[in-house]
Each structure stands twice: as structure tokens, then as C-alpha cells.
Amino acid sequence: MREIQTVGVVGAGVMGIGVSQNLAQTGHQVILVDVSEDILNHAKQEIRNNVRFQGFFQKNSEAESPDDILNKIKFSTNYKFLEDAEFVVENVTEKWDLKKEVYAQLDAICPEKTAFAANTSAISITRIASVTKRATRVVGMHFMNPVPMKPMVEMIRGHHTSDETIETAKKMLAQMGKECIIVNDSPGFVSNRVLMLTINEAIFILQDQVASIEEVDKIFKTCFGHKMGPLETADLIGLDTILFSIEVLYESFNDSKYRPCPLLKKMVDAGLHGRKSGKGFYAYSNPN
Fold this sequence. Notes:
It is built from eleven helices and eight strands. It has helices spanning 14-25, 37-55, 66-70, 96-109, 125-129, 163-175, 191-207, 213-223, 230-237, 239-253, 262-269, and strands at residues 6-10, 29-33, 73-76, 87-90, 115-118, 138-142, 152-157, 179-184.
């Protein structure tokens, strides 16, 4: 199986930025697509900042500059450029109506052989594949944030995903310097079916005034050895993304244990989305 050279990335939010940067840093040509020039310009600046920041910790004088990395990424609002992509990673907001439209466009534009990877935290891969004409070539690829620094990816096999697609996806991840754990398709998969419940319950604890923000996080870090507490993790992921994900789980399982905490809804309505907005459970001086 030959090397994958050109990869399309749809969605230039936090995850799309990380995936694009990682791909460019591992020698891929990237086509990053989103709906507006403003979003793409923000993505370009974030990648520049991230690469520059990484450079502070690298002693290798041959490390590529931000311009070297950005020159490997084509930023566009036009899906047409994805006709050159050998593989596409989709990172659109966790809203089914949006994803459905994106896959209709991808399916019409991309070559028949192109595989699609849904970087989703909760939506069924089988459901996503059902709106394409290439169900065997659709796979879940749940990257962790920040993407360039996380060596493991949760890969999800949909009902129709072929072994060939799994091998192609594994090869691309290996080219990115990553390994994967393959799980079967179910809303939320493994990581977020557990994590979203934990974060949602931590927010209920805060709402019920059982403990403070700092106390909740400190218990998880000192008692269980977690690097981050659940509320810090929520800020890193984005509270809007947390809400979308828990709503998908609630809708998918019709189980009251996935009922979103009212405080979470209130914070999202208030624009307190975490690191990317500058304030969530904690305040940040340099929002993404």
C-alpha cells in the first residue's frame, strides 16, 4: 500500500487545526476547507502560533518553520479542491444536520476510492456512512486534543467499514506518528460514552454546590492520578462540544443518565466555551 500524500481536512476548528498541523508536520499535503475566510485566517494564525511554540522546546535546528508547515496546507472555502484528496478527515461540529450536508458534498466531489474518516466524538459512524455511496470506505477516527501531542487515536469500525479501509486508516495514522485502538460502532464509542458522563456529572456536582471547581478537579488529579480534572478537561474540549456530545448520547440511548446539566446549557448560552473563548470554568489569558 503506497504512502498517502494528499489529505483533505474539513472543519477548521480546534480539532481541524490540530489534524492539519500534524499532517503537514509529517510531510503530507493538506487541503483545509471551512465555510469562511475569517475562520481559515484564524486557523492559519493558530497553526503559526502552535508551530512557533513547539519550536521553543525543540533543539533540532532543522525543525521546520511555521512558513514551511503552512506552505503544505491549502486553505479554501471551496470543496472542489478535495477532488485531489486521497483521504479526508471530517471535523465538523457535532450536529447531525451539518454533518449530513458535508458528507453529501464530499461524496459528490471526492474520487470513488477516497476514504472518509469522521473525527466525531459521539455520532454513529454507521449513520454517517448511510448518507454516502461509499459506506465501506467510511471509518471513525476520534483524535484527542491537542492532536499533534497525542499518540493514540480511537478508531471506530462502522457496520459496513471494510478491512481495507481500516488498514488504509491505520497506515495514515502511522504516517502521522500515531497508533490506534479499534472499537465497534456505538454512539460515544468508548472514550466519550464514559468521559461525557463524567464531565456532565462533575458539572451537576458544581451546580449542587457539593464542591468548588478547584476541589472537583483536585480530587481527580490527586486521588486518581489524572493529569487534568473533569472541569479542566471540559474547558480544553470546549463546553459547546461537550453539550453537543451529551445531547447526541441522550438522543441516541433515550436514557436519562445522559440528561445535560442545566448549568452546562447556561454556560454555553453565555458563550463560556472554555479555552477557545477565554473563559469556561477557568479564565484563560490566551484563548484559542
